[in-house]
């Protein structure tokens, strides 16, 4: 019989890549969607998987919807990717961010405990938990958390609840502590996609400026398509555990800008970029770089896509979108 997986956050960036991977492995995939007046399936369409998914209704803030869902589907694996995932919005919407990202995880874990305790659970944890890190220039599973935003704080709660259900009830629960990962279907608010979309607009004469905040922040950027493999591998491992996933290389936002303008063949990026205080954050996370040696050794996972290839892939996809229009 085919294995079954429930993916929350199916309409976001990672959901479609993970769904594609699991469908290729023969899984039946359920995708949780919340009630929306006009949901967009563009990201699933981009990867050509929309019609292969069974959509189920529910909302991370509505405990009874999750209880019913787990009771009805009893999936072999749950991948919890749903979140208010934009750090910038989390100061203005701290309560909502907490309800979805923190309490939502508690509801889902309780539903598994009550109705399907053999279900394996993946929690989308994040390098934002490290925040301003007291480290040696990289972060791994032993690095202390010091989150810098309501988003990071909500994810620390979810991280520990995931660990606690493993320790208290012997459930198979894992945290993937993923560093930034991007793709042509990355949300338009995140800096990488904002840059590649802006570059494509400039190239097509639709804009003449790109407004950005802090160009000095450094991130460890990888490709989402590579990272969903790590999620899958965690749930196939013999024992549940928590893993850092990243490339081990970092770059500044400015490096990303330079590479993106160059990939589009536009000289003089300085002519177009405007530093705009609206995009600076009350508290910044200045420097993130993963040490993913545990995932590499225990899961056999490795990043495959270089920084240069990632930027090129995203710029080319955005150029194609505007050319098609
Ligand atoms: P994303 O594109 O923002 O997708 C998040 C998804 O969550 C969306 O489909 C959204 O649904 C759904 N969602 C939000 N609130 C919900 C609710 N109340 N009930 C049900 N669904 C809800 O995020 P992503 O980049 O794919 O990231 C996936 C997960 O990994 C997130 O948990 C994120 O915090 C975490 N993470 C991401 C990164 C990264 O670099 N991408 C790194 C580390 C961790 P709608 O489409 O209806 O809005
Ligand atoms: O910002 C700086 C900004 O919004 C990256 C989420 O997926 O990864 C993501 O969080 C950096 C920050 O991602 C702009 O200040 C400058 O230092 O692309 P971002 P993020 O905050 O790192 C983690 C791992 C997650 O878990 C999150 O869910 O870029 N920056 N200028 C800007 N950022 C944005 N968005 N817009 C700007 O104009």
What does this structure look like?
- It is a single chain.
- With 325 residues, the protein is α/β, with parallel strands linked by helices.
- The chain has ten helices and 13 strands.
- The strands form four sheets. It has a seven-stranded parallel β-sheet, sandwiched between helices. A two-stranded parallel sheet has the order 7-10.
- The mean pLDDT is 97.
- Residues 85, 87-88, 126-128, 179-180, 189-192, 194, 212-214, 217, 219, 253, 279, 281, 284-285 line the site of ligand F7E.
- NADP nicotinamide-adenine-dinucleotide phosphate is lined by residues 8-9, 11-15, 32, 34, 36, 59-61, 81-85, 100, 124, 126, 178, 180-181, 187.
Low-confidence stretches: none
Q: Order of strands in the sheet with the most strands?
A: 3-2-1-4-5-6-11
CATH class of the largest domain: Alpha Beta
Number of strands: 13
Radius of gyration: 19 Å
Count up the helices.
10
Task: Indicate the mean pLDDT.
Answer: 97
Structural class: alpha/beta
State the order of secondary-structure elements, H for helix, E for strand. EHEHEHEHEHEEHEEEHEEHEHH
Please report the distance between the alpha carbons of the first and last residues.
44 Å
Q: What do we call the CATH homologous superfamily of the largest domain?
A: NAD(P)-binding Rossmann-like Domain
Shape: globular
Task: Give the percentage of residues in beta strands.
Answer: 15-25%
Q: What are the bound molecules?
A: NADP nicotinamide-adenine-dinucleotide phosphate, ligand F7E
Function: Catalyzes the conversion of GDP-D-mannose to GDP-4-dehydro-6-deoxy-D-mannose.
Keywords: Lyase, NADP
Family: Belongs to the NAD(P)-dependent epimerase/dehydratase family. GDP-mannose 4,6-dehydratase subfamily.
Protein name: GDP-mannose 4,6-dehydratase
